[in-house]
């Protein structure tokens, strides 16, 4: 079969894109010819890997560096769409130009099966798709989200398609109830979720993980409030939230207001996400609505115990409460905290839920879902009297030339699949040959800084980087710290060389004191009884005081009145622990974990006093510093809210 998928955008991050790619790959493995047609091209390279067996077509190039459109196309692009439904959520992105390009493509398409992947595109597929092609309308959201006008439009349009597929059984029932004349064309086929090649999580970490768009519907505010309720009882647990979205700023403000800065990090987007899932023990989903629950299946597959709201539509279908996950009421932080507490406190329960979840996730593999779509397409073609020759399965293409990496410890890395030829580390100024061996332990020639794994032709592309071993703090100071990470798609390591480590665990600022407490490791540090704040821009200016330190702990209290008195807007201050000998000092830094670059991810609470804002932050080198800013009258009024 020739199968074409009509998509809104192939070049962004999103669940529809991921599941379409994985299902299409399974169909290609079964021997079918796959074409992906994206209305918009927003990037030169897609974020997700595209199977080289696919044909990819872009209808409208909206990249910033795209060639300028022809004058006629520019006029069409400036006029609102007439054919794409006005009540569709993406309507404002469409135009007369997209109308024209979609219709032209549909009229010229010779595919046996055309699959639309969002409501507006399905309406156009129904009206302008070739008569002899099987037309399938996929619903990746849910009918109740669309409103009455769009629902009526879809009902009229879907009388001209061969099938409508939903990703949840509940949504399929809703469609059948509200569209009775086409009830026999509606089917439920779930999203496909590829199994991770990484070993599953062990369940012994003290980390809760959440992932998804930072949008209101995901209700990460509920998760943060629930976590705040739990911290007094489970102070050793941490929370990481992965993703980008319009709610990022609001969520950061809530982290500040709840005092969660030392326990919660907003990590931004990561790909592939399974390398982050496996670091956790518990996955948290607090959404008000989930059409399917892609992250639930991903987390189950990676061996996490899932706690989710029982929101429409997906989670209650995916989770058997108490067996392979826990379900809680929507929008209830206390109830969600209670459910999290159950699995936090009971390691055996975490493990049993995680084991059952992995078994559940096995039913959503691309192979299983692809087979269901193949059966549907074959049946629809046969109903039209069209014979379908048995497809000959094809071998999957070789994996991309990427190098996977696993942290064995803070000073040992295991590389898998490095390219042939001489490997070397490159810091931009010099090259250091990579010592032979699958597990790298000799870092003698690498100085502090970022080193990129390279060959003569350029940087080595990064595959999966498994750094879960670094999420557990070491008991003794490592001789060198090596944290791998993806740097613009290439495999790199951040190297730190320290005789001693002053690792801050809490950073708090009040109107009276900037307080930093933490852990000491390494060369005996009992003589470090003082602290110094060194002004980075005015080298002759510094603040100092006495630190409360033991053999393995420290506490620093910087008087805020002194800090403000010695500061001018724009000042940057670096914090050191010091001893009687001025040459003996240790930088206060967060180094001993898996985060190679903390800046913008790990953000201590800020405080505004009058016309000055005190901003503790971590630098690009993960060192603790303090910035002093001048505020506007509006900002200064927020001092007690942040």
From TrEMBL:
Protein's name in the database: Glycosyltransferase involved in cell wall biosynthesis
Keyword Transferase: yes
UniProt domain Glycosyl transferase family: residue ranges: 203-359
Domain Glycosyltransferase subfamily 4-like N-terminal intervals: 13-194
Molecular-function annotations in GO: glycosyltransferase activity
Source organism per UniProt: Stackebrandtia albiflava
Keywords on record: Glycosyltransferase, Transferase
Keyword Glycosyltransferase: yes
InterPro entries in the cross-refs: Glyco_trans_1, Glyco_trans_4-like_N
Origin superkingdom: Bacteria
């Amino acid at each position: 079969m020739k199968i074409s998928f009509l998509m809104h955008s192939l070049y962004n991050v999103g669940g529809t894109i991921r599941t379409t790619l994985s299902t299409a790959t399974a169909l290609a493995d079964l021997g079918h010819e796959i074409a992906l047609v994206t209305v918009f091209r927003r990037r030169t390279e897609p974020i997700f890997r595209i199977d080289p067996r696919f044909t990819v077509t872009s209808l409208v190039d909206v990249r910033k560096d795209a060639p300028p459109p022809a004058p006629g196309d520019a006029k069409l692009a400036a006029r609102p769409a007439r054919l794409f439904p006005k009540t569709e959520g993406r309507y404002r992105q469409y135009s007369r130009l997209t109308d024209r390009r979609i219709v032209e493509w549909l009229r010229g398409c010779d595919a046996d099966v055309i699959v639309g992947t969002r409501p507006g595109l399905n309406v156009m597929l129904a009206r302008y798709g070739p008569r002899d092609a099987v037309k399938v309308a996929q619903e990746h959201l849910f009918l109740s989200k669309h409103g009455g006008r769009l629902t009526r439009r879809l009902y009229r349009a879907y009388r001209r398609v061969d099938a409508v597929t939903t990703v949840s059984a509940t949504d399929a029932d809703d469609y059948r109830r509200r569209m009775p004349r086409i009830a026999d064309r509606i089917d439920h086929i779930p999203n496909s979720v590829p199994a991770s090649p990484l070993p599953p999580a062990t369940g012994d970490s003290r980390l809760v993980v959440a992932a998804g768009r930072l949008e209101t519907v995901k209700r990460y505010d509920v998760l943060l409030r629930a976590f705040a309720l739990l911290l007094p009882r489970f102070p050793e647990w941490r929370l990481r939230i992965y993703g980008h979205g319009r709610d990022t700023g609001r969520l950061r403000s809530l982290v500040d207001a709840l005092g969660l800065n030392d326990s919660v990090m907003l990590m931004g987007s990561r790909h592939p996400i399974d390398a982050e899932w496996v670091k956790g023990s518990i996955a948290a989903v607090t959404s008000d609505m989930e059409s399917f629950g892609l992250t639930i299946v991903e987390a189950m597959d990676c061996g996490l115990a899932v706690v989710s709201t029982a929101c429409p539509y997906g989670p209650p279908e995916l989770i058997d409460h108490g067996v392979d996950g826990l379900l809680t009421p929507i929008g209830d932080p206390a109830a969600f905290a209670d459910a999290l507490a159950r699995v936090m406190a009971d390691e055996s329960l975490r493990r049993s839920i995680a084991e059952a979840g992995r078994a559940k996730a096995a039913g959503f593999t691309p192979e299983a879902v692809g087979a269901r779509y193949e059966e549907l397409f074959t049946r629809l073609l046969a109903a039209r009297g069209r014979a379908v020759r048995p497809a000959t399965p094809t071998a999957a293409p070789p994996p991309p030339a990427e190098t996977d990496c696993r942290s064995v410890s803070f000073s040992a890395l295991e590389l898998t699949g490095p390219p042939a030829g001489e490997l070397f580390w490159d810091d931009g100024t010099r090259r250091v040959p990579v010592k032979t061996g699958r597990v790298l332990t000799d870092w003698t020639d690498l100085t502090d800084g970022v080193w990129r794994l390279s060959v003569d032709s350029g940087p080595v592309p990064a595959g999966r980087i498994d750094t879960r071993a670094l999420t557990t703090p070491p008991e003794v100071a490592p001789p060198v710290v090596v944290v791998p990470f993806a740097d613009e798609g290439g495999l790199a390591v951040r190297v730190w060389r320290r005789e001693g480590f002053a690792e801050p665990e809490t950073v708090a600022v009040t109107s009276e004191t900037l307080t930093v407490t933490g852990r000491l490791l390494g060369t005996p540090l009992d003589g470090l009884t003082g602290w110094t704040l060194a002004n980075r821009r005015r080298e002759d200016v510094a603040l100092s005081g006495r630190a409360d330190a033991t053999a393995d702990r420290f506490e620093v209290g910087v008087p805020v009145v002194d800090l403000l008195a010695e500061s001018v807007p724009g000042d940057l201050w670096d914090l050191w622990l010091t001893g009687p000998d001025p040459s003996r000092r240790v930088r206060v830094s967060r180094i001993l974990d898996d985060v190679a670059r903390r800046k913008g991810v790990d953000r201590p609470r800020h405080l505004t006093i009058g016309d000055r804002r005190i901003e503790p932050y971590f630098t690009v080198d993960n060192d603790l510093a303090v910035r002093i800013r001048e505020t506007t009258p509006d900002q200064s009024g927020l001092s007690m809210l942040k």
